[in-house]
Amino acid sequence: MVEHHLVRSRLLCVTLFAIAMGFLEAICVVYIREKLFSPGTDTQEIIAQLGHFGIEHVREVCTIVMLLTVAWIAGFNARTRTAMFFLMFGIWDITYYIGLRVFTGWPASLLDWDCLFLIPDPWFSPVLAPVLISVYLVVSCVLLILREISGSSLRLTRVVLSLQTVGFGLWYWSFLKDSDIIMTGGYSGVEYSWFLFLGGMVFVLFGLIVAMRQRSE
C-alpha cells in the first residue's frame, strides 16, 4: 500500500502538470492564430479550421501519450493509473478554456461552440458540455483514488463499467453526430443535443453511485 502522504504529493504533481498543459495549449492557439490566420479572425473559427491541418492530429496523439505516461508514473495500480489519466484530462481541459478566455477573450460564453477533438473525426459541442464532463472526471477520479488509499476501494463491477461506457458513448455521439454538417457549413442552424448529453450524465452518475455503495471484495 502506498503511503497517504505520497499519494497526496502525486495528486498535487499531476494537478500542476495538467494545469501547465492546459495553459500551454491555450498559448499554442494564440501563436497559431498569429502565424496562420489574418488579424481579427474569430478564435472559434480558428479552432474549427485547425481540423484541416494534419499536424494537429499528431499534436493530439502526443498530448494523450504525455497524459498516459505521467499517469503511469503517478499511479500505483491499474485503477489509480486510469484515474490519474482522467483526472489530468479533466483539469487540462478546464484550464485550457480558462487560458483561452484570459489570453483571447474567447469563449465569450460557455454556450459558444468548439471543436473538441479531431480523432478519428472532429468532435463539436458548446464549451459547457466538455467542461461539465471534466468536472465529473475530476470529482469521480479523486474519489476513486482516495477510496483506494483508504482501503475501501470502489468496486468496479461489470454493471458499473457498463453504465460508464453507455454514458461516455452518449457523450461521444452527441459530439460527433453533426460533425459533417459543421465541417461543411459551420455552426449556423446546428443545435447541440443536450438530451444525449444529459442522458450520458445520468448513466455515469448512476454508475458512480452504484460503485460508491459497494466495497471491493
- Which H/E pattern describes the elements? HHHHEEHHHH
Strand content: under 5%
Question: What is the subunit arrangement here?
Answer: single chain
Tertiary shape: globular
Amino- and carboxy-terminal Cα gap: 16 Å
- The count of domains is 1
Strand ordering within the main sheet = 1-2
The count of helical stretches stands at 8
Q: Helix share of residues?
A: over 70%
Q: Main beta sheet: strand number and arrangement?
A: 2 strands, antiparallel
Q: What would your notes on this structure say?
A:
The protein is 72% helix and 4% strand. It is mainly α. The chain has one domain (4-212). The protein has a two-stranded antiparallel ribbon with strand order 1-2. Strand 1 and strand 2 form a beta hairpin. The longest helix is centred in the N-terminal third of the chain and has 33 residues, at 4-36.
Q: What are the key terms here?
A:
8 helices, 72% helix, 4% strand
Helix and strand arrangement:
Blueprint: H1 4-36, H2 43-49, H3 54-74, H4 78-104, E1 113-117, E2 123-126, H5 128-150, H6 158-176, H7 179-185, H8 194-212
Antiparallel strand pairs: 1-2
Helix pairs in contact: 1-3, 1-4, 3-4, 4-5, 5-8, 6-8
Provide a quick synopsis of the model:
By secondary structure, the chain is mainly alpha-helical.
